[in-house]
Automatic annotation (TrEMBL):
Residues 145-213 are annotated as: Disordered. The keyword S-adenosyl-L-methionine does not apply. SUPFAM superfamilies: lambda repressor-like DNA-binding domains (SSF47413). PANTHER family: HTH-TYPE TRANSCRIPTIONAL REGULATOR, METHYLPHOSPHONATE SYNTHASE. It comes from the Bacteria. GO terms for molecular function: DNA binding; DNA-binding transcription factor activity. Residues 17-71 form the HTH cro/C1-type domain. It comes from Kineosporia babensis. This is Helix-turn-helix domain-containing protein. SMART domains: HTH_XRE (SM00530).
Length: 213
């Protein structure tokens, strides 16, 4: 016949309960009466054949006058859930009735389940908002950057044109000095000067001829 393998943690719990019971000088029957369980059931716990519930562990801890957390840790209950400390506090409170403990544990479990769903919904909503922002704001930022870049290039072009205008004007002045105007006007002025010089020479010759006569 195959035998069931008992978890080491349950075996350690049973050995620990038996050790504490013997230290307290309590018989198996006395501790069973305080814990509200039968002698065979408590015997199976001490031999590591049964894993008691949190409520039974609380009653055993009360009968042994030890911390319930010590038994919960031995049983591995402190590692099973994040809110087990609250459950331990509720179960170990001797001022509460069994019905009050069940009601409090049910309410606590309900609130934790609702908060877990709310957290999941909030995370999904945050992802949706982030996606919406990425789809609208990011393109607007890119469009604004492109528009600013175009304005910057226009200002640069206008600045280059303005700086080139004085130089072009200076070149125009050097090529056409004041009072001469276009190249055709310069030639006409030169012909006038030559004609004037010829007229002056003719007048001088006539004057000399008259003096000789």
């Amino acid at each position: 016949m195959a035998t069931l393998k008992v978890p080491d943690r349950v075996t350690d719990l049973g050995a620990y309960v038996k050790e504490q019971r013997e230290n307290a000088k309590l018989s198996l029957r006395q501790l069973a009466n305080v814990a509200g369980v039968s002698n065979p059931y408590l015997s199976q716990i001490e031999r590591g054949l049964r894993k008691p519930s949190a409520e039974v562990l609380t009653q055993i801890a009360k009968g042994l006058q030890i911390s319930a957390e010590a038994l919960f840790q031995r049983a591995g209950l402190l590692e099973e859930s994040v809110g087990v400390e609250v459950e331990v506090a509720i179960q170990s409170d001797v001022r509460l009735t069994a019905r009050q403990k069940r009601v409090l544990l049910d309410i606590y479990s309900t609130f934790r389940a609702e908060n877990a769903r709310d957290d999941a919904d909030s995370e999904a909503q945050a992802d949706a908002v982030a996606a919406a922002v990425e789809g609208t704001v990011v393109p607007l930022i890119a469009k604004s950057k492109a528009k600013n870049g175009l304005k910057s290039r226009r200002r640069s072009t206008e600045s280059s044109t303005a700086s080139a205008s004085p130089a072009a004007q200076a070149e125009s002045v050097d090529a056409h000095p004041a009072g001469t105007g276009r190249p055709g006007a310069a030639r006409r002025n030169a012909r006038k000067r030559v004609g004037g010089q010829r007229s002056a020479s003719l007048r001088q010759v006539r004057t000399e001829d008259q003096s000789t006569d």
